[in-house]
Amino acid sequence: MMMNIPVAYRFVAIIICLLTTSKVVDGAIGITWGRQSVQRLVPSLVVDLILQNGVRNARIYSSQTDILEAFSGSGINLNIGLFNVAVILDNNTAFDWVQEKVVKNYVTANIRRIFIGNYVFKSGDNYQRIRNDAMTTLEVIQYALNRAGHGDIKAALTHDTPVLKDNPTRPSEAEFKTDLVVDMSRVLNTLKANNSPFVIKIFPALFVLNNNMPPIFAFPDNNDSATFVKDINGAVYTHAFDFIYDSFLWALEKAGAGDLEVVVDQLCWPTDGFPGGNFSAAERFYRVLLPRVVSNRGTPKRPGRPIEVYVHSLSDETRIPIFEPWGRHWGIYRSNGEPKYKIDLTGQGRDIYPARAKGIMRMPERWCVFKNNTLNANILEKQSQIACNGGDCTSLSLGGSCSRLSFEDTVSYKFNMYFQSTFQEDGSCDFDGLGEVVTENPSTGECLFPVEVVKGTQNLFDKQNSTSGADHGKGMHGIGDRCAVCFVLLISVLWAVF
């Protein structure tokens, strides 16, 4: 069973957090945490991991009471999620929600913001109803916060780059899409009236993919001058983060909201399922960018101004709906609490691994593999489909860490992912006589055949409770631009050289 974290240990973790963040800076680094996985890290463990890594800000995809209670007394600034924008559309419902979620937890949980929806503000007539709901929810929640005497807590919608016009060649050209201008004006008026931030997602690797830019432009250490973008007023863009951030600044300025604070609630680099989505690339990206965030260098359009970003995310979420294979692989940590790569979340640029989670035990060293006793394509397809319906096979996707396996190893990988998702349950490796349990690790090259953690050492995923009501995201925080899948093949070879 998972050990209870002593109060004294929590106290020590808070002291460590204070010491490692004592440097006076305005730029802020936070981290996101979602819970849609086979086993979910228990909230108290998550709080301690955040504190041990010197992080003072968190963006959580929930507003459940038990989650808020876990953060009580931690000193962590919380940005909580309200996902179902169709649930709270009037002042009375909004006031009740604020009383239940905010007022009861305000002092101890240190709630700072309510992030509404999850990139639901999309272009097109098909999205008009959800945009209307999102705008209404934003307005009534902020009104309820103000009415309850908590106007210092800000409500905001979250936005992705598709709200901007397509194919920008430089940030100064950016503006909101024509069919979003009226609705965006309504949103911006609410934000300006309440001094609330404009919240954005930045996924550099996907941005350069979608805009036919060189892959190296995704990295903040890019020194290839041939890829630099020159803009007006002498601005020069060497990498995608500054390009995207300033594109939003230009769009806001043109919409009459150039003074709004901009918060990056998802700073993304996947570790699998995407060309260039691997541990070394993620480590390289964050090693350079995070120190820039806390240095207050700002961007070409806002030099010397602090930036607030949230690294996405603490751990993988293997139960997010598969719209893109990389959407399940944002995590810094594996399910067993082991970090995947080096990252200094304080922004000091130290060559360190993040703190390891304690008290999580692995299942026995057993794997399920294909016996290689049939070549019947129909039978193999049927059993493989069963395996991947229950297990996470996204690492087999083009550009993924297991995409180069042989045919037999690919079948074995699928079988093992199902076997581990059942916590090595007896009979779950049968697959109509095609599977067998082995004790020799079948991992090969960069492809890891994982072993699941012991059942009960984390909170089990509850599909019904994870997708209901206003407090849950239905996996939407893992969804980006679905069209990007079409371009992955074209860019795979280019990523291999960076």
Automatic annotation (TrEMBL):
Signal sequence segment: 1-27
Domain X8: 366-449
Pfam family, one: X8
Keyword field contains Disulfide bond: yes
InterPro entries: GH, Glyco_hydro_17, Glyco_hydro_17_plant, X8
Domain of life, source organism: Eukaryota
Single GO molecular function: hydrolase activity, acting on glycosyl bonds
The entry's keywords: Disulfide bond, Glycosidase, Hydrolase, Signal
Record PANTHER family: GLUCAN ENDO-1,3-BETA-GLUCOSIDASE BG1-RELATED-RELATED (PTHR32227)
Family: Belongs to the glycosyl hydrolase 17 family.
Name listed for the protein in its UniProt record: X8 domain-containing protein
Source organism per UniProt: Castilleja foliolosa
